[in-house]
Amino acid sequence: MVRLVAATVIVCALSIPAHATVVIGADLGELARDARAIARGRVVAVDAQWTPGRRTIETLVTLEVESYLKGALGETVQFRVPGGILGRFRSIVVGAPEFAVEDRVVVFLGARGPSVPYVLGFSQGVFRVVRSGDGSTWLVTPPAILPSAAGSVAIVRGDPSRRALPLSDFEQRVRALVGGAK
Amino acid sequence: MSSWFDKLTTSDTSGLPTLIQYLQAATKTRKLENTKTKARKFFSWFRDLVVSCLKTAVRMTVPKWRIHATRTPLILSVSKDELRRAGAILLASLLILGHTQPALAYVKFGVPVGGRQVTLKWAQTPVRYFITDFSIPGVTTSDLQGAVGRAFASWQAVPTSAIVYQFGGFTSARPGDDDGLSTLGFLDKPELDRVLGSTSFLIDNATGALLESDIFFNASFAWSVAPNGEAGKFDLESIALHEIGHFSGLGHSALGETELRAGGGRRVIASEAVMFPIAYGAGTIAGRTLRADDIAGVSDLYPDGEFNQTTGSISGRVTKDGQGLFGAHVVAFDPANGSMVANFALNAQGEFSIAGLSPGPHVVRVEPIDDADLDSFFDPDRNVDIDFRVTYHDRLVIVPRGADSGSIEVKVVRK
User: Fold this and answer.
1) Reported ipTM
2) Which residues of chain B are within 8 Å of residue A50 when distances are taken between CB atoms?
3) Are the Cβ atoms of B279 and A6 closer than 8 angstroms?
4) B39-87 confidence digits (pLDDT tens)
5) Can you tell me the distance from the alpha carbon of A115 to that of A125, in angstroms, rounded to the nearest whole number?
6) Given an 8 Å threshold on Cβ–Cβ distance, is A153 in contact with B260?
7) Buried b (16+ CB within 10 A) or exposed e, B151-185
8) In angstroms, what CA-CA distances link B145 with B153, B195, B236?
9) Does domain A26-147+160-181 have CATH number 2.40.50.120?
10) Residue in B176, B375, B415 nearest the CB of A56
11) Chain B residue numbers touching A10 (CB-CB < 8 A)
């Protein structure tokens, strides 16, 4: 009881839990292979909640799916991400994705058993769909890290060929990777 | 032969005669060994950086220089007259860039409080931490305490930082519990694939004060506490070192390079910061050593009495098409010791500031973060510009002792 009271006092006085992570790097091929589903869509709801036991905050993200590049989990799909905003409390996870209503994204989702899906590799499994500068087309950012076809290859920053891909090109590449992974 | 950059350590004029003297002596050898005595430790791109920078300078000034980009060291073959001209060029750079301004802030975690940003840091030391009394196969709680203790000791040993940590004992509390204790331990998180560890904070929203921080290590992975590492297992001390950097208030650094593996996936091939967000592979202990970028960061957060007087900073802005550029990664390289410290252009004006630099000349490189998950560095609603080419500032920038370089501008161009 003393512990519970102490926790309550502390939580009432605080508002911004944050997190940070160290991850294992993945390329687009690994993400495509490991994903239970790959969905493109629009975020229509973001609902933070306490985890069981009120230990920390997680967020349920509802995506209105426009297209599946792999698998199928329905016209809308919910997935969870660590952290979120709940009343006076905010949990931030560095390296984990954050979502807002109306975001347009492609998400690589994992799932274990009947549980709510999660994003693979934290922010590595999220690609954002944005308008090009002149508004003429949809682009996918960040630039995809495509698997190497010829041995180990250093990833060089500033490579002129590394740009945000048009959405159609990105989807074509992902579908090819999914097909190759079968 | 020591580096000629070694002779230039401050912005005051006392360094100039020393430089001139050294250059005069060096002309007798007709060969000038550059500062790359530790070059084999550098990134391959960094070798290219120095070469490219020098070539650029050569084209503009001394076209007859012959530069050989060897593995290490980098050798410049120069004539006596050419070397004298080089001295004149460097002196001109000193005179132009050697004035001083106050340093700005370093990259750290910040939280909004009452419309202003408050730096996330511990207000009091020693910072007490507890270890969860939960072991995993191959790693006892005692092993965990040992590895974590060594990682804390590494941060605490930074001579220019005043932070102190203290082990408070074992606890049944779990990392992540909001209980007022800063707790480190294992949690089984199989759903967090590719996530080795995580740090959480509890913050007083009224003041921004950091009250609690927890670290968990993902028990779904195989861990090692062996002195030299173990094949197929991640080094607990290395990951703890990274997470304790967060625990202390540091964000991620982009000073690292990865490669695509033939069999799929990405591998870290070099890193100049423990705070690089992607881990070295299993079986290595390469991540146990703090680098200049880490040291600058923690020292800036918790400076001892000498830090601000013994180091300096570089500030300026990055522009593209005449406009400020948000999100550019700006790297300062000290050729005298091979260290690198970096920061980002963090506002719409493209302004940046890199603190905690060793006094002396630095090479400045600006690069896009087009190989990373931007969410790992920036809020998702920030419009990070990655459409530009790597660019070097066209002059050496002199970092004065205890002061700022004065604002520089680095103009980049689209890809």
Assistant:
1) 0.77
2) none
3) no
4) 344 334 444 444 444 443 333 332 222 223 323 333 333 344 444 444 4
5) 18
6) yes
7) bbebbbebebbebebeeeebbebbbbbbbbbbbbb
8) 12, 21, 10
9) yes
10) B176
11) 178-180, 202, 211-212
Give the whole-angstrom CA distance, residue B78 versus residue B70. Answer: 16
Give the highest mean pLDDT range of B51-55, B203-207, B324-328.
B324-328
- Within 10 angstroms of residue B308's Cβ, the number of other Cβ atoms is 18
Taking alpha carbons only, the member of B103, B164, B120, B163 closest to residue B311 is: B103
Percent of chain A with pLDDT over 90: 42
Interchain proximity A157–B375, CB inside 8 Å: no
The residue ranges of every structural domain in chain A are 26-147+160-181
The Cα–Cα gap between B1 and B20 comes to 16
Q: From the CA of B389, how many Å to the nearest CA of chain A?
A: 5
**What is the value of pTM for the model shown?**
0.77
Please tell me the predicted confidence (pLDDT) of residue B408: 96
To test the contact with chain A by mutation, choose from B193, B241, B252 the residue with the greatest count of A C-beta atoms within 10 A, namely B193
Shortest distance, CA B53 to any CA of chain A (angstroms):
16
Q: Percentage of chain B with pLDDT > 70?
A: 73
Across the interface, whether the CB atoms of A143 and B370 are under 8 A apart is answered: yes
| 3-state class (DSSP) for residue A105 | strand
- The stretch A88-96 carries a mean pLDDT of 68
Judged against a pLDDT cut of 90, whether residue B38 lies above it is answered with: no
The pLDDT of residue A83 is above 60: yes
**Right CATH for B110-297 from 3.40.30.10, 3.40.50.720, 3.90.320.10, 3.40.390.10:** 3.40.390.10
Asked whether residue B378 carries a pLDDT value surpassing 80, the answer given is no
If you count residue pairs, one on A and one on B, with CB atoms under 8 Å apart, how many are there? 223
Residues of chain A contacting residue B246, judged by C-beta atoms under 8 Å apart: 20, 94
From A6, A33, A152, residue closest to B260, measured CB to CB: A152
The CATH code of domain B1-97+311-415 reads 2.60.40.10
Query: Which amino acid is it at B124?
Result: Q
Pick the range with the lowest mean pLDDT from B140-144, B175-179, B285-289.
B175-179
Question: Between B44-61 and B80-97, two packed helices, what is the crossing angle to 10 degrees?
Answer: 100
Q: How far is A67 from chain B (nearest CA, A)?
A: 23
Question: Chain B: residue nearest A155 by CA?
Answer: B259
Instruction: Please tell me the predicted confidence (pLDDT) of residue B107.
Output: 56
Which residue among A3, A88, A154 sits closest to B257, beta carbon to beta carbon? Answer: A154
Q: Which residue of A has its CA nearest to B248?
A: A20
Chain A residues whose CB is inside 8 A of the B201 CB are 16-19
Evaluate if residue B6 carries a pLDDT over 70: no
Hey, where are the domains in chain B?
A: 1-97+311-415, 110-297
Cβ–Cβ gap B374/A124 under 8 Å = no
Reported confidence tier of residue B195, pLDDT bands at 50, 70, 90: confident
Tell me whether residues B211 and A14 touch, CB distance under 8 A.
Answer: yes
Closest C-alpha to B399, from B316, B323, B289, B321: B316
pLDDT value at B29 more than 60: no
Q: How open is the CA angle A23-B122-A94, to the nearest 5 degrees?
A: 25
